[in-house]
Amino acid sequence: MTDGPAVDTRPTKIMYVAEATAHGGREGYVTSQDGQLDLRVAMPPQLGGDGNGTNPEQLFAAGYSACFHNALILVGNREGYDLTGSTVAAKVGIGPNLQRGYGLAVALSVSLPVVDADLATRLVDAAHEICPYSNATRGNIDVTILLG
């Protein structure tokens, strides 16, 4: 799939707002306003930390994989397919960029064992168009989608 002209994917109505607060950056903890999240955050060993906690990249991977999988199920249901048994795994990489900051890259691995390869590709492409995380990242970070 190639990116065409910019499409406005901003919401026309906000239906839900998630609230979370970081305390201490990458060496602290994060909480959500509703109390569902209360997690220790730590730098992974690969970035010089002790790894004794989650990190923003893991949280982003969890959010993106859940959101993309939901978009995939929605697209499948709209077209009459039951995608029970499907999964989406996300890998989020972080590294230095050319602007002396850091950037992210994402790889989504999609497993659709109940449909053939052509249909799987079509459903994944459609999910990529409606997923809020895909819309937020499009044109900003590299997102690779692998069908397996």
Written description of the protein model:
- There is one protein chain.
- With 148 residues, the chain is of the alpha+beta class.
- The chain is 29% helix and 26% strand.
- The protein has a 3-stranded antiparallel β-sheet with strand order 1-2-3, with no helix packed on it.
- A hairpin with a 4-residue loop joins β1 (20-23) and β2 (28-32).
- α1 packs across α2.
- It is globular and about 45 Å long.
- The protein starts with 19 loop residues before the first strand and ends with a strand.
- Belongs to the OsmC/Ohr family.
- This is Organic hydroperoxide resistance protein.
- It holds the Pfam family OsmC.
Give a quick precis of the structure:
This protein has helices at 56-78, 117-130, 132-137; strands at 20-23, 28-32, 38-41, 87-96, 102-111, 142-147. With 148 residues, the protein is α+β, with helices and mostly antiparallel strands. It holds the Pfam family OsmC.
Record keyword descriptors for this entry.
about 150 residues, alpha+beta, three-stranded antiparallel beta sheet, three-stranded mixed beta sheet, 3 helices, 6 strands, about 30% helix, about 25% strand, globular, KH_dom-like_a/b, OsmC/Ohrsf, Organic hydroperoxide resistance protein, OsmC/Ohr_fam
Spans of at least 5 consecutive residues with low confidence? none
Cα(first) to Cα(last) distance is 17 Å
The major pleated sheet works out as: 3 strands, antiparallel
Counted by DSSP, the helix tally is 3
**Approximate helicity band:** 25-40%
Mean pLDDT: 95
The gyration radius over C-alpha positions equals 17 Å
